[in-house]
């Protein structure tokens, strides 16, 4: 449909029909839902008028081709203008084939795999009748106390931007209207949600606009440049105003400055939450502030449904505000091809063939293995030999709670636990399995059994971590160590002196004291998804050489938080020349640096970096610099390495980070093979937001770093010179 046709359609709509389009309700509100439309509890308290239900524009959480087709069919029977429903769901890291959580996928540093996982998730969702996914979440995060770090790809805006683009491409494909195995992407949460104070979910965010633009907005802009069709507002405040009522954020920045013409949707209940935030006195004022600020769709509260009509009829609100929102929503429906085919790809036969098919499970296995990060491997305990007798101990030894939060339709019974994955590669007689403890619970009898099995073994594998309820949304924690019951198990096994490997299942960086200092090897497996046990076994037995690298720093302890690689220097930096030893910026009881820094990850081989050189030590706006470094696989097995490029602007108008990631390449090398890796660095990559928010670079000296992580690097310098008038 052309714009004029959509506007013509809007002109034919009644006020109720328009208001219905800007409301999103959950599946139970719709006839034909599997729960037969039973509305109870908080949903009943929304007081949605009965006459409004036939006009609602979008449904939240419907799934399955049979259900979605039934809802759409019955809805259209009551629709005067036959405007189809939008069906939206949370497809975060897989539909039914569950991939590792996004923080893990980020640790792969593999944009092609990230895009592939989103493509598969979209395909499964689309044939099941879903039109829109609430992903990717691109919030930058520096505080592992916040449970939703598992939904992000980490602490770096450059890397988050790259993954944002990859995921949007994967979800939406290249022809959203005609490719009915794609879904529209909704980037979230706009904006600053990852900086919630104290790591406490839904909490206040307080930062300068410069910091917001510098660190927290780039990934959103990248997602929109990749074509994301929707934006979801955040729960938090931005400069003292909740995001869902923030006109400067949504109208001025998103619409006017960035020229975004897609749909803005609130998060669940966020419009009504303007009342407890303290910027609206009642639902009517909340509705007025949200739609004025630019929220096109209100998700799961009744402010729009119950008050927009009165606001318009009393001239408190211009009906054009509503018309604008409706036009954008109808445009999205047209871009998805719903006016031509309201059922858009929902096909029970295709659903049975596609969802959880063997090819998708194999992809989940591959991506899970690439996402694992080897944090420690003393005495080359890993990989394990299949001739060894092994004790697999810990609460995750045979647990299928490995899908992680926001795995929605993922079936734990379909997940491959670690013991099954290992048994598939070992004679049954060589693997002894016991829990030793629960995730949080100590049991002396279980511990005694675990110790006995460990004594009979050549090597011990400890499967440890957080239950999925301990992470994700509303999963904030002040203590990010493993529960004491698990630390007691680790300590008891360590006393035996057996070679010991810890495999970690978790959704956030942890304080690993009591683990990393007690075992010989640590493999960070995150929540690895449906094929997790098989993928981890591939790593443990050396069928796959680990290549993951951290995208979020692991602290020494919670008292350091936030600890991140691209921090600012101080006027009294630790190690400063001529500084008194005590009076510098440091802790008395802990290092300043992370335990495991951004970009860190080991391999079963060793990569040597040498011969770092620049094409010139002088850069100009029209003369980029080429960076070359030789990387050699100095070990005995083939492996993949993530070669990372960082810079530091030594003197800026405002303080600049100690390091900033500006490029990376993942390469594969055979034993003894060497390769010259090349990067191109441009003046544009040196720009930043100045005190007046202008975006440009400064002349002067820059340090450039290349290495295996943000700490272990080679260094070289260059100068930027800008000619007059530039």
Characterization of the model:
Residues 641-710 form the Fibronectin type III-like domain. InterPro entries: Cellulose_deg_GH3 (IPR050288), Fn3-like (IPR026891), GH (IPR017853), Glyco_hydro_3_AS (IPR019800), Glyco_hydro_3_C (IPR002772), Glyco_hydro_3_C_sf (IPR036881), Glyco_hydro_3_N (IPR001764), Glyco_hydro_3_N_sf (IPR036962). It comes from Virgibacillus chiguensis. Keywords: Carbohydrate metabolism, Glycosidase, Hydrolase. With 726 residues, the protein is of the alpha/beta class. Helix 13 crosses helix 14. The chain is built from 21 helices and 26 strands. 28% of the residues lie in helices and 18% in strands. Strand 12, helix 18 and strand 13 form a beta-alpha-beta unit. The longest helix has 17 residues, at 111-127. The protein is globular, with a radius of gyration of 27 Å.
What descriptors fit this protein?
single chain; 726 residues; alpha/beta; TIM Barrel; Rossmann fold; Immunoglobulin-like; 3 domains; 8-stranded parallel sheet; 6-stranded mixed sheet; 28% helix; globular; GH; glycosidase; Beta-glucosidase
